[in-house]
Predict the 3D structure of the following.
Amino acid sequence: MNNKLVVMLLSAIIASGLMYPYPVFAHNFGEDESASWLAKVAEIRTEINLVAKHVGNTIVNSYYSNVLGMYWNANDTLKMGGTNTLLQTAIPFTINATLSDARAGNQPAVSDDVLKLNTYLNESIPAMVDKNSLDNSTVRALAIVFVLQEALEKYGNALHSKIDLNDMSQMNMSRGSMSGMSGGMSSMPSTVVDQNAYENSIGLATTAQSMFNDLAANNTDKSNPNTKISSAFTQLVQDLNNKADANTVMMDIHVKLHPFLISAYKIQEVADANTGVLAVPEFPLPELLIVVSIAGLVVATRFRPVFGF
């Protein structure tokens, strides 16, 4: 076969691979009561601190009231009552008091409410999470994953995205490949439609980052993956603040962060209910073709005298 034709074919494969938006399987982390509670506590703290930033703003207060209603509901009150009846009453009462004082524009009262609520939430952890789970790095890493899921959901809401940002199969991986090859070229900022959800997404991502920093400090033996995860978090928060497009933010979490967090902290993924197969990302054929083709071009170019062109 003519060697020039070979080079042309390899170039065509690279181009088609970049253009082809191949599917990726989504992570399925399942449920863990201990990790879920740690995530819940972190999420409520995030929301209540954001409420404290908007004392007197009834519209913002209404948004966070709805969100807090999802993070703490009657079922949570029931569960809490099984281990601590004082907290069963104190936590929902203080959440409502914070919202009420914020609506009334009473900043000193809100500050006092936040301090009380943080104390109650701290006390709820040993009541709902046994010591072995509390000391388990995998459980804590999974809690971080759960908070990140909420951050992605809120960012999708902020952009009124038509796709589920927690679903990896809806990522456009070709754009991620081109971004990587162009040295991290940033995309145009997205249009934020819901400012409250946008602020919320940044707050939750920052909370997850803080949770990871605490986890990494207690797992210094994982310095290499910790460095990569930390860099991914920095990029994520930066992209959120820069209002990056949904695909870029999905790449930050699903591609740059999750794989290292999963492997380093031994997070077990749950098999798909329909197929029985673990929902892990695979190395897609188009990207594999790109890598092989680029290598072929390098070899062909380097040894042109040998090939005779």
